[in-house]
């Protein structure tokens, strides 16, 4: 079976454009998202969630495949979902690197250095270490010789 890539691309785009955004099949989330400022104002004015859900249901906002009227529990769940999505979107936007910000600092760059009391002091060139490696090894052996002695 051979596939026509051009036709496949056209069909996929057409079908994608025909699909609802996300999982919105009844349009409830979209309707609540657009009505969210009004819902917040109603809540601020002291209107209860059940009254808001009933008013939305009276205007034709339904839920599920059975298209039953919007319930209070579903309304509050959708509002919480929308708020979470907005928070995540804002968090992602704040974490992105802006294209107009420089990647490197623009000021003079200073090379980090140790504090003076932590820096090593250079040895004078004419001074030699007092012991050679062999002498150090021998001294260490003498210190542990009694432990290594067999009875």
Task: Write structural notes for this entry.
The chain is an all-alpha fold. It has a domain at 45-94. The protein is built from five helices and two strands, in the order H-H-H-E-E-H-H. It has a two-stranded antiparallel ribbon. A hairpin with a 4-residue loop joins strand 1 and strand 2 (68-69). Helix 2 crosses helix 4. The longest helix is centred in the middle third of the chain and has 24 residues, at 72-95. It is elongated and about 95 Å long. The chain starts with a helix and ends with a helix. The mean pLDDT is 77.
Which descriptors would you attach to this protein?
151 residues; mainly alpha; two-stranded antiparallel sheet; 3% strand; elongated
Short characterization:
Helix content is 54%, strand content 3%.
Q: What's the β-strand tally? A: 2
Uncertain stretches of 5 or more adjacent residues: none
Query: Roughly what is the average pLDDT, rounded to an integer?
Result: 77
Please estimate the helix content: 40-55%
Distance between the termini: 88 Å
Radius of gyration: 37 Å
Helix/strand-derived class?
mainly alpha
Report the sheet with the most strands, covering strand number, pairing sense and barrel closure: 2 strands, antiparallel
> Looking across the biggest beta sheet, what order are the strands in?
1-2
Figure out the total of helices: 5
Shape: elongated
* Order of secondary-structure elements: HHHEEHH
Strand content: under 5%
């Amino acid at each position: 079976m051979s596939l026509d890539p051009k036709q496949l691309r056209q069909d996929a785009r057409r079908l994608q454009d025909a699909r609802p955004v996300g999982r919105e099949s009844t349009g409830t989330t979209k309707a609540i998202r657009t009505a969210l400022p009004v819902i917040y104002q109603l809540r601020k004015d002291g209107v209860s969630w059940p009254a808001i859900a009933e008013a939305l249901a009276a205007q034709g906002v339904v839920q599920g495949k059975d298209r039953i009227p919007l319930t209070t529990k579903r309304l509050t769940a959708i509002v919480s979902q929308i708020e979470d999505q907005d928070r995540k979107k804002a968090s992602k936007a704040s974490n992105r690197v802006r294209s107009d910000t420089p990647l490197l600092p623009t000021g003079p760059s200073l090379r980090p250095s140790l504090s003076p009391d932590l820096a090593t002091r250079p040895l004078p060139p004419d001074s030699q270490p007092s012991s050679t490696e062999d002498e150090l090894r021998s001294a260490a052996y003498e210190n542990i010789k009694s432990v290594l002695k067999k009875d």
